[in-house]
Write a structure and sequence with these properties.
This protein has helices spanning about 1-10, 25-30, 30-40, 45-60, 65-85, 100, 115-130, 150-155, 180-190, 210-225, 235-245, 255-265; strands at about 90, 110-115, 140-145, 165-170, 200-205, 250-255, 275-280. By secondary structure, the protein is an alpha/beta fold. It has a single domain (about 60-280), classed as 3-Layer(aba) Sandwich (Rossmann fold), CATH 3.40.50. The chain has a 7-stranded mixed beta sheet with strand order 3-2-1-4-5-7-6, sandwiched between helices. β2 (about 110-115), α7 and β3 (about 140-145) form a beta-alpha-beta unit. α1 (about 1-10) packs parallel to α3 (about 30-40) and α5 (about 65-85) packs across α12. The protein is globular. The two termini are about 35 Å apart. About 45% of the residues are buried. It binds S-adenosylmethionine.
Length: about 280
């Protein structure tokens, strides 16, 4: 809900700061959150939008910048895959991801949303409440716990074909998982990926020791409140090695600096980079 609130906010903010539009986010969030996003985005002139954008970026240590930029970077990577003829999208740890419900480019594609059953129940009720229908050809919900369940078998049961190329999104999830679950899931992705498939995966590189300790302490509080402990820090080299073991090779590895220059034509101003986005491909 936190990241969906940021997406709702950036949907309302005008360009050039509004780089990623997700109208589904605001429509399915609890009312106080969508109201907060709408309130902050009352800034309709370019100047006031810039002020809201910078104030929230500063207050969130760059998290709001990060979510807006990563949404756009992943949307672009997905559109590129669809333009190359990919017709299967798997969203791992989908949460309130709205792509299947907001992207007309998915009209010819099957979308598999993978998550905990409780998260899926909640999302389904929210979509129904807001009378939102998929834009994708079909949406299949696949219940999987990355720490325990067989991803490949669960997808196959829902009609996923490992013989056709696919695009996978694993956005904002790996930091909540153990190393074994990250490796196991990547291995399942590699095994189910036909040549030409790609995965867009965000990960949090290890930080300075004091910052890592602070994030872990924050994670413990978060775990108690919402049941999502922070644990999976990985370096770019480790992600590349885990990918290689799964038969997936780095096509690009970018973070806030590259995105900010590309989408905002400016240097990144957040205090932290938060996550990086690696695109791994099956050749
Ligand atoms: C921060 S949310 C990100 C949601 C979405 N990808 C986005 O960017 O808006 C993390 C998601 O990962 C899911 N998740 C966390 N641990 C998981 C696990 N062990 N198995 C399956 N899903 C998990 C949560 O249910 C949640 O939907």
């Amino acid at each position: 809900m936190g990241v969906a609130t940021i997406r709702a906010l950036y949907t309302e903010l005008p360009e050039p700061v509004g780089v990623a539009r997700d109208p589904i986010a605001g429509a399915i969030l609890p009312r106080p959150l969508s109201f907060a996003a709408r309130l902050a985005s009352r800034a309709s002139s370019e100047r006031s939008a810039e002020r809201v954008h910078h104030a929230l970026g500063l207050a969130s240590l760059g998290m709001t910048y990060h979510v807006a930029l990563r949404t756009r970077a992943i949307d672009d990577a997905l559109r590129d895959a669809l333009s190359r003829g990919v017709r299967q999208l798997v969203v791992l740890g989908a949460g309130l991801d709205g792509r299947a419900y907001r992207m007309d480019e998915l009209a010819g594609a099957a979308v598999f949303e993978v998550d905990h059953p409780s998260t899926q129940r909640d999302k389904r009720a929210r979509l129904r409440g807001a009378r939102i229908e998929p834009r994708a050809r079909e949406v299949r919900l696949v219940s999987v716990d990355f720490e325990r369940d067989e991803l490949g078998a669960s997808l196959a049961r829902e009609g996923f074909s490992a013989d056709e190329p696919s695009f996978w999104i694993w956005e904002g999830v790996t930091v909540y998982l153990t190393r074994a679950a990250i490796a196991g899931t990547l291995s399942a992705v590699g095994a189910a990926s036909a040549p030409g498939s790609r995965i867009a995966l965000t990960y949090v590189p290890p930080r300075e020791p004091w910052l890592e300790r602070a994030l872990l302490a924050g994670g413990r509080v978060l775990a108690r409140v919402i049941g999502e402990p922070i644990r999976g820090f990985v370096t770019p080299e480790e992600v590349a090695a885990l990918g290689r073991e799964a038969g997936l090779f780095v096509s690009s590895d970018e973070g806030a600096d590259e995105w900010s220059r590309r989408y905002w034509s400016s240097e990144y101003e957040g205090i932290f980079e938060w996550e990086r986005l690696v695109i791994l491909e099956r050749r």
